[in-house]
Amino acid sequence: MNTKYPTDYAPEMLESFENKHKENDYFVKFNVPEFTSLCPITGQPDFATIYISYVPNINMVESKSLKLYLFSFRNHGDFHEDCMNIIMKDLIKLMDPKYIEVWGKFTPRGGISIDPYCNYGMKDTKWEKVAQDRLFNHDMYPEKIDNR
Known about the structure:
The protein is an alpha+beta fold and about 150 residues long. It is built from 3 helices and 6 strands, in the order E-E-E-E-H-H-E-E-H. It has helices spanning about 65-70, 80-95, 125-135; strands at about 15-20, 30-40, 45-55, 60, 100-105, 115-120. The strands form 2 sheets. Strands 2-3-5-6 form a 4-stranded antiparallel beta sheet, with helices on both faces. A hairpin with a 6-residue loop joins strand 2 and strand 3 (about 45-55). The mean pLDDT is about 95.
């Protein structure tokens, strides 16, 4: 195999393809149970399951490129909240989706787990309101944490 794995944050790995069902509104969801990044303070690894859900517009993200892009965070030092917002913004730049949300559920370190959630709805469309509603009502019924 000639697959090249980036050694640090690499948004250039992301690739898109055309949405063949532009007339439909539908969700695409990625579950990423093995996300890893580094704590910018201690350099220790942080582990998370990330959920990326989006409603495509013209373009969609190609899954292998997404895997390689997410792998590029492995040696990248950033806070959990930053990682999730960076991922969301890079995917917005790539695809210009109608709606997108990124939710990271990090395993506890030091007895605390951090679960940042961010979203975006295309301005001046119904998706802007959907984003606001989902943010305001996000995690109203949090799951039972059982040591992840």
